[in-house]
Amino acid sequence: MGDFPAEWEAWIRKKREDPPTIEEILRNENYREEMKQKVKDVSEKDKLLQAKEYEEGLVAEPSHTQVKGHASAPYYGKKEPSQDPTSTANTFQPGAWMPPGSDSSQKK
What residue spans carry the region label Disordered (predicted)? Predict the structure, then answer.
């Protein structure tokens, strides 16, 4: 997690009775490194197998889509905002603002 081994973290947080030994820490570190290497090897083999299957036509290649903006943001066809924001700090009057394109005759 941080700068010290997870075994010490567990002992400090009272999730284990005894403090870890140097041998245990080294053994677990070697195990984690072996697992990282195995995952890397399996990923490479899988990529090679997928490439072979694509070449043989056994599997369709994934389509490449272009994502614009954030995935959860709605898209209504406009590419850019209609106006640049402007400051009204010196001229602001409460209740005087009207949306662009609205008539002043529709005031209540």
Answer: 56-108
**H helices present in 3-100, as ranges:** 6-12, 22-56
* Sequence letter at residue 37: Q
Q: In sequence order, what are the residues at sequence separation of 6 or more whose Cβ sits closer than 8 angstroms to the Cβ of residue 69?
A: 75
pLDDT in tens, 24-55: 999 999 999 999 999 999 999 999 998 898 88
**3-state DSSP call for residue 17?**
coil
What's the CA gap between 108 and 105, in Å, rounded? Answer: 8
